[in-house]
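Before a colleague's protein record goes any further, I have to sign it off. Thanks in advance; the entry in question is below:
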Amino acid sequence: MSTPKKYDHIDFTPPQEAADAAEKGLDLRREFDRGGTDVGVARARDLKNRKTLSPDTVERMVSYFARHETDKDADDFGNKDDPSAGYVAWLLWGGDPGREWAEGIKEKMEKADEDA
């Protein structure tokens, strides 16, 4: 699926910080054998490789972070020695940098939709 022309001015390439978080999530998942789904792993691979994402994928990222914000309240969220499954999953989706980036891209998309 190609990106709509009205979004031509938007860079859908994830930032390095989100790529780094995703790579960390993949490493922790391998080490501790928990966290994330197959979809989360696929997202992490795309982010790690800084693959240009589709507008739909960016919207799915925003939705993921909104649904899983409560994961941050769990014990061991952020514990690198014994991470919660939610922490690993959060990183797979790009962590806080991924959330900030996706939300910013969504805002740009909404502005482009209004201007179209």
